[in-house]
Amino acid sequence: MKKLFAVALGILTAVGGFVDIGDLVTNATVGSRFGMSLAWVVVAGVIGIVVFAEMSGRVVAVSGRPTFDIVRERLGPRVGLANLFGSMAVTLLTYTAEIGGVALALELATSVWSYFWIPFTAAAIWIVLWRAKFDLVENTFGLLGLALVVFSVALWHLGPDWGDLWHTASTAAKPAAEPWPSYWYYAIALFGAAMTPYEVFFFSSGGVEEGWSEKSVPVMRSNVFIGFPLGGLLSLSIAGAAAVTLLPAGIEVETLSQVSLPVALALGKVGLAVAILGFFAATFGAACETGLSVGYSIAQYFGWQWGKFVRPRDAARFHAVLLLSTVTAAVVLLTTIDPILVTEFSVVFSAVALPLTYLPILIVANDPAYMGAHKNGWLANTFGSIYLVIVLAASLAAVPLMIWTKLGTT
Amino acid sequence: MSDRIDAYYELMDRQILDHDGRMVGKVDDVELEERDDGRLYVTALLSGPGALGPRFGGALGTIVTSTWSRLSGRTEPARVEWSAVASVETVIRLAVGRTTVALDGFETWMRDRVIAAIPGSKVDPG
To answer: Are A288 and A128 in contact (CB under 8 A)?
Structure first.
């Protein structure tokens, strides 16, 4: 019974923790402009993150090596360093976006200007990173993040023409007025939001924090195989709710309040309150994950002691990185840059950084010296190889498309 | 431990742990010695920016090495004697504690000057 509870908790946490500011904003934007015609990208992104999260989780459970250890070991110091700079830039950008997201959620709840909330938000997140227990953070915000199910309820309540939604989703029928370059630009943004590199940095380092062993593989798999796809359904619900309300009304998503508009229309004030709670939990949880990921990756590249399983004074450089990146993120936001814009950049550059993270995982997952009997089977290798090609194509196309479409505005 | 080792694959860029499982550093380079039998022997693991800088090469390598040298006051990279190595797995385990191998100049500085000053730095995790 206790074990079943642990498995259920893990799955629920994975569902609630799946969506972050990038998923919220990108899915709502895409739903409001392209309806469900890009739903296939969310499905493809979820399969991709499932494939590589399972692989990195298995590597850490069997060999104890988290992702950035492997990046350094397999790519060497020079390419590893280039990867570190790229990944850190993206993860720090995402961290900034998540902190901005928390502040925006607080603004929605209190009507107090979000820039007022930024210093307090950053301070609160840092205190959590400094003091709170690892699994407490993961479970609390994962479970509260389940409040985003309100988007599925809202979609149901709106009573859309399911046949029509399914038709646009299954035939990828783009609205005629939207140009193809923007369609592909948003496809890459959605893909980047679903597969952000920090997810595997955090997931694999979390395996070390929680002391996974070979015995943890089945539980880890149930979290990934059940939790992540259900999290993907939340993403699709956000897009779907926007598709049936905002698209016909010609409203394009530019703020977080517009993301919640479909819920307010369908379920009124109570629904809106639940959605705001979901925004807060999802962004606060993801802020902790991205903040830790910055520290994990740098410490793992250089071999420093890291982790919340030791006292802060025993991982001094790691905690110095956490403090410095939190201050940096807050300062960047206080320049009054638009957090939604930061989010858009973060998901596109995520797509650029993907191949360098996923290639070493695929190599090591096939290395018997690390993996013994647990090395990749044909299924993981087939999917892994196909996704590496897709990820490479998305990475190469991301920046040219961003410039061509002027961030998807044309 | 076998007496032959593929130092490039099995040692380079691996994590070094001390006898308590604490992370000490990376194997940033390896010190080799040619003995009378004509074979190369690993005599020490080199760790820290002093060993990593030369592996970057170019301008970046020079900057890393000289900055490290200026800050630490040392010219030779930090060494871990091969005799201190207990086992070579996917990590390098040492038979000694992390303080014995004295690799942590920057860590110690950061701990004493910054982290120790923040309340709660000595609290054990859950």
So the answer is: yes
